[in-house]
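User: Design a sequence. Structure:
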């Protein structure tokens, strides 16, 4: 062993340099494992694309969670979002649903067309994605996946893997909350369970179409046991299916129905079609509501805002188009107009099977037409001999008048069947107004749909 101090100094220096190098490698490796730097600065943008309101509800709760953790959070509908907003935002949380057959919600039309047509430069932008869907559809989370693809091709980086929610799956939503907790450094997980269902009583049930060649359509009315909540025309009632004895109360299955009445009626009215399954058995909710529940029975129900199907202010001309049980949502809009002081022109175009059996709410609609609440009322019956037409044919026949109303600022609301009616009406409106004009109406919220 040497006693030379110079040699000892060299050896110690080399050892320190070696330890330093190892330390540096460890730090660099740790950094590389993180997909992006978790943002520490404030400034989150929460974007929602929602067709029937659920994604919007979750977006509101996401923004609240961020704010409670001391972060600044901007909540914005995709309808109001431009690529430049995405580039500047840098940290985005997207909450989007899929509608139609793998389609984007209507409110996303402008963004899809203008922003998502080609990849853009989003390097430095980091995002998380909550994608709502339902596995029973062929293109599960179609829009969420398309958005994710566009973001990745645009070189945005993921904060964590996209979270996909099948039919409201509570576990997936908790996973999203968990990711939010990691981002904000907050361990508090507020309860995001949907608002509890309220207690209502079934007070009226009436078959609207005895003798119809179509499925039974029932008018149902419910009275609240705990006070009338507030809602608007276009909103949706969620009905809880009865829970069997011993079944977990927290996993109540729900079904959605367009509300056909207003709070000033003091009751929720629905128009429910008895659905038959391929094996001939009745649908769970529609069967129970129309065949099994007795007048006076308690029903679990809550109203959910469906802002995408709210109407314009009462003085704006309004064209309402629908078929079958779609009349429910349209009826609430006409009711709202009937009660408005400064009422714009209102035109209802409705299609069903036979004039003899399926003229739902005929007395009421005729009275509205007579009193001028409805400026025009046009109905088509597909099974009437000699005059069989669908509502989309009515739209085609009235194309000049519809174009004229639209020129005067009319908003178009469509409610009813996703299959047949909605694409048929869309094609007829495209022919009447032109593709570009219809896109523009969609983008500006003047063409809104509640189709299922
Ligand atoms: C936003 C929204 C609003 C709605 N508004 C109304 C309304 O106002 N009135 C109304 O009657 N219904 C409405 N529905 C449909 C309703 O929510 C239920 O899907 C329907 O009542 C069937 O439920 P169920 O439990 O009786 O049938 P399930 O036990 O769920 O079985 C239904 C059977 O019918 C099929 N099925 C389900 N829905 C449809 C459909 N729309 N078209 C064709 N086949 C179908 C299924 O594949 C299954 O075989 C609405 C749906 C949505 C999403
Ligand atoms: C008419 C209709 C069409 C739908 N189409 C799809 C689909 O193609 N793929 C999918 O994964 N989910 C589909 N869904 C399920 C919705 O994405 C899901 O119910 C979601 O929670 C709705 O969120 P929203 O209320 O924010 O629009 C559809 C739902 C409805 C009512």
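Assistant: Done.
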């Amino acid at each position: 062993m040497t006693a030379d101090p110079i040699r000892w100094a060299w050896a110690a220096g080399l050892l320190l340099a070696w330890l330093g190098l190892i330390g540096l490698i460890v730090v660099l490796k740790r950094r590389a494992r993180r997909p992006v730097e978790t943002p520490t600065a404030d400034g989150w943008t929460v974007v929602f694309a929602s067709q029937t309101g659920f994604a919007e509800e979750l977006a509101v709760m996401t923004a609240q969670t961020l704010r409670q953790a001391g972060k600044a959070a901007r909540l914005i509908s995709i309808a109001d979002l431009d690529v430049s907003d995405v580039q500047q935002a840098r940290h985005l949380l997207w909450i989007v649903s899929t509608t139609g057959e793998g389609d984007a919600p209507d409110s996303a039309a402008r963004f899809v067309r203008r922003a998502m047509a080609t990849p853009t430069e989003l390097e430095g932008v980091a995002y998380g994605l909550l994608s709502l869907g339902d596995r029973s559809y062929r293109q599960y989370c179609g829009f969420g996946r398309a958005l994710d693809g566009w973001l990745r091709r645009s070189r945005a980086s993921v904060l964590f893997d996209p979270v996909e929610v099948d039919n409201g799956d509570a576990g997936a939503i908790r996973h999203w909350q968990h990711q939010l907790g990691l981002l904000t450094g907050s361990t508090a997980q507020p309860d995001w369970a949907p608002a509890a269902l309220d207690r209502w009583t079934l007070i009226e049930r009436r078959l609207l179409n005895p003798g119809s060649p179509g499925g039974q359509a029932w008018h149902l009315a419910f009275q609240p046991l705990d006070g009338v909540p507030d809602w608007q025309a276009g909103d949706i009632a969620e009905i809880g299916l009865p829970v069997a004895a011993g079944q977990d109360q927290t996993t109540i299955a729900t079904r959605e129905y367009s509300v056909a009445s207003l709070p000033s009626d003091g009751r929720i009215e629905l128009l429910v079609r008895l659905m038959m399954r391929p094996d001939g058995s009745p649908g769970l909710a529609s069967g129970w509501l129309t065949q099994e529940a007795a007048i006076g029975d308690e029903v679990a129900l809550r109203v959910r805002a469906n802002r995408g199907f709210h109407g314009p202010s009462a003085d704006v001309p309004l064209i309402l188009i629908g078929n079958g049980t779609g009349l429910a949502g349209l009826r609430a809009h006409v009711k709202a107009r009937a009660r408005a002081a400064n009422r714009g022109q209102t035109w209802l175009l409705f299609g069903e099977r036979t004039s003899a059996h399926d003229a739902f709410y005929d007395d009421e609609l005729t009275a509205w037409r007579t009193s001028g609440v409805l400026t025009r009322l046009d109905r088509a019956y597909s099974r009437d001999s000699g005059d069989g037409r669908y509502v989309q044919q009515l739209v085609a026949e009235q194309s000049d008048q519809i174009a004229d109303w639209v020129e005067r600022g009319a908003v178009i609301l469509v409610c009813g069947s996703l299959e047949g009616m909605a694409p048929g009406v869309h094609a007829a409106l495209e022919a009447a107004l032109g593709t570009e004009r219809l896109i523009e109406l969609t983008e500006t919220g003047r063409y809104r749909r509640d189709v299922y």
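The pocket of flavin mononucleotide (ligand 2) is lined by residues 50-55, 97-102, 105, 132-134, 137, 139-142, 168, 418, 451-452 (CB under 6 Å). Residues 365 and 377 are 8 Å apart (CA to CA).
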